[in-house]
Request: fold
Amino acid sequence: MAKQKIAILTGAGMSAESGIKTFRDADGLWEGHDVKEVATPEGFANNPALVLNFYNQRRRQLHHVQPNSGHKALVALEEKFEVKIITQNVDNLHEKAGSTDVLHLHGELLKVRSTKNEDLILDWEGDLMLGDLDEKGHQLRPHIVWFGELVPMLEPAITYTMKADIIIIIGTSMQVYPAAGLVNYAKPNTPIYFIDPSPSVNTNEFDKLTIIQETAANGVPKLVQELLK
Reply:
């Protein structure tokens, strides 16, 4: 018998308890920078050294953080279900925990790509500097989807969400694209579980919505235990 499919949509709240700061602080700054400076193509064109340094610091941080109990619990679902994690996070904590099918909507810190050929993507563990070039002599850049850029992995994310038998949303507002948009592709009557300490969701919008008002580290293991019963 075919396994049921679970689509898991994760956002910044998934990794917050591992010590990775959420995308933007309340003042709209990201680690002290205006988002336009460090997360747009224009920012990179204006000051590439600043942008590379910003992502180098984020990349270094990944070597010192570990998956939390929420990340680890999701791995257990693969015993009984076909699981795809669709994450807005650019860290590697899902993979570090052992999840085998992770789709990164917004790119990955541990990859870089050519500024000229966006299909040329390389694994990258250390710092990325001005003068680090692809084989044709073009500067490499972080493999991150910046504001104003297309989200190339959105189509496969939509396709899987449409097939999912269960949807789990963790640590991301259901008001913000792309997670909010993805949920609209769910089949009618698909059970949706929403795990967030401060859930901002209109319960009338979905037929079968269960809200678990907890952090990822606490709420995910509880839900996984229920689903595996």
Remarks:
- Residues 67 and 93 are 5 Å apart (CA to CA).
- The two ends are 18 Å apart (CA to CA).
